[in-house]
Amino acid sequence: MMRMSKYYAPTLKEVPNDVEIKSHELLIRGGFIRKTASGVYTYLPLGTKVLKKIENIVREEMEKIGSQEILMPIIQPAEIWQQSGRWDDYGPEMMKLKDRHNRDFTLGPTHEEMITTIVKNELRSYKQLPISLFQIANKYRDEIRPRFGVLRAREFIMKDAYSFHNSEESLDETYEDFYRAYENILKRLGVDYRVVEADTGAIGGNKSHEFQVLAEYGESTIYYCDCGYYATDEKAESKLTFEVENEEEKEIKKVSTPDVKTIDDVANFLNSSKEKIIKSLLFKGRDGWVLALIRGDYDLNIAKLRGLLKDQTLEMGAPEEIKAEFGVETGFIGPVGIKKDNLKIVGDLSIKGIKNGITGGMEKDTHYVNVNLNRDFNVDIFADIRMVKKGEPCPKCGKPLKEAKGIEVGQVFKLGTKYSEKLNAYYTDEDGRSKPFIMGCYGWGVSRTLGAIVEQLHDDYGMLWPRSIAPFEIVIIPVSMKKPELVEKAEEIYNLLKDKYDVLYDDRDASPGFKFKDADLIGIPMKVVLGKKMKDGKVEVKLRYEKNAEEVEITESFDKLLEIIDKKLKEYDPKIYLNSIDKE
After folding, report:
1. Is the domain defined by 253-383 classed in CATH 3.30.750.24?
2. pTM for the structure as a whole
3. Where are the alpha helices (DSSP H) in 442-528?
4. Are 218 and 236 in contact (CB under 8 A)?
5. Rounded to an integer, what distance in angstroms lies between the CA atom of residue 475 and that of residue 319?
6. What gap in Å lies between CA 392 and CA 394, rounded to an integer?
7. pLDDT at 201 over 70
8. 66-70, 377-381, 532-536: range with lowest mean pLDDT
C-alpha cells in the first residue's frame, strides 16, 4: 500500500527565497525536486515518478514511428568534436574535463558526433537505410546563468534521436514522422502548444522547428499570425521595409557628448530620434572582429548574425578587450574611421536608408552627426540581423504579427551532411558509389517538460497535473486516523482502486485541512474523502479543481463509487478549468 506516512514527499508551506517563477516554486514546495547546486537538481520520489511517466509517453511515441532505443556514454572524447569543428563552436556552455592521462573529454551536451562515429563503420549500404535511433539520458550544458528551476539547468534529462538516410526525400518523411510524434506527445500531455520555425544554432542544418508549451512567463518569445505563421524570436522575420530618407546629405561633424553612452542618452543629448542613430556593436568570433550596425530603436538578433556568418562562436566583445583593441570605450564605438585587420562590418537593412545619422565618434565623449553610408563608412554585408517587433507585417500575409510566450520542450532538425562529411561517415549507394549519410536529429527535453507543464497548469493552490503524468490519479483521505470505521473503509477502497488507478492513501495523523492542502499542492486529480458523511454511508468524491464534492453511497456496494470515479476522471481537464478562470 502506498501510504503517505511512509512516502518521501517533504512539502513546504513557505516559498523558497531563490525561486524565480511559479513552476520552480511549486516543484520545490510540492516535494518534487531539491536544489543540489546552481542548475543541478535532485528529483525526489514525486518528481521521479512524473519524469518516468513523461519518459514512457515519449518512448511509446518513438517506438510507434520505428525509432530504436540505445544508450550512449555521457563522457565523449574531444577528438570527435574537434573533427566536426564544434569543440570550439559550442562555446563555454560545453563542460570539458581531462582524464588522468591528460586527454580531453566533454560531458555530452548532445550526441551528433557520438552517434555518427558509432554507425559509420556499421551502416555501409543503402539497403540498411533509413534508420533512426534514440536514447533518454542526462545531458550537460554549463549555462552562464542557470535559472527558472528545471527549465534552464546545467544537468538535465533529454531524449535525443538521430536518423540516417540516402536521400532528401527519405529525410523529409522521417522529419514528418518525428513532427507528428512530437505533436502526439503534447496532445497526450494535455497542454496548449505551438509548433514554430526555429534557428538551428550550434546544432546546425538547414531546417528546424521548435515545439513550445504556451506559458505566461515562458522564456521564449513567439511571433505568430492567424494565417499560420509561427516563429521564435531568433528566427522571426517580417515584411517591414525601410525607405531611403529624403534629405540632402550634410557635412559630417564630430560633437562632444560627455558621459553619453546609451541610445536613449544620445538621442536626448542631441535632441534627435533613436531612428537616426546607427547603433554599433562589436562581436568577436573565430575569424576576428565583427562590427554589427543596426538602427537605434531595434535590438540585434545574435542568432541571425551567427547564422549569417556561419560562426557560432560569436560573442559580444568584453569592454576591456574592446578598449585594448580599438582604443575607445564601448559606448563611443562607430563605423567612421574604425580600423582593424580582419574586421568585418555587417549592416542591418534598417540602416540602409538613414541620411545624416549619428554614430559613435571613436573617441571618448564624442559622437559623429550627419553620417552617411558609402560617403563616411562602408558595409561589407547587408542582411536582416534584427529582432522583429509585435505588430510588424507578417512575412507570409502582411497582417500584424502577434506575440506570445512559450517554453521549448522539443526541437527537430534537418542536418543534411554536416556531420557525416566531417566525420567521414559514408555508405555505398545502389551504383556502388560512396556517399555521405543525410542526417536528421530530434531532441525532447524530458525534465524541461516537467517544469513547462507546471508553468502552464497551476492555480493559486498548487499544481494541476494532466492525468496522463500525475504522480497519483487519486488520493484517499480519511479525515481522522483515530476513527477505526474510517480507516477500515479507506483501506478497503484503496484495495478496490489500486489495480485500476494510481492511488495514494493519506494515512498521516494530521488535520483534514493539512491533508487537503497537500493534495492540492501536489496536484493529484481526484480526492476520495471519508469524513462526517460516513455516518450516512457516503464518501465524497471531488476533482482537484471542483468547488463542491459529490456524495456517493457505498453502503450496498462500491459500484456507484467506481462509476463516478471513472466518469469524473475521464472528464478531468485542467485546461478547461483554467480557461474558465481566465474568462471570469
Report:
1. no
2. 0.86
3. 446-456, 484-497, 512-522
4. no
5. 57
6. 6
7. no
8. 532-536
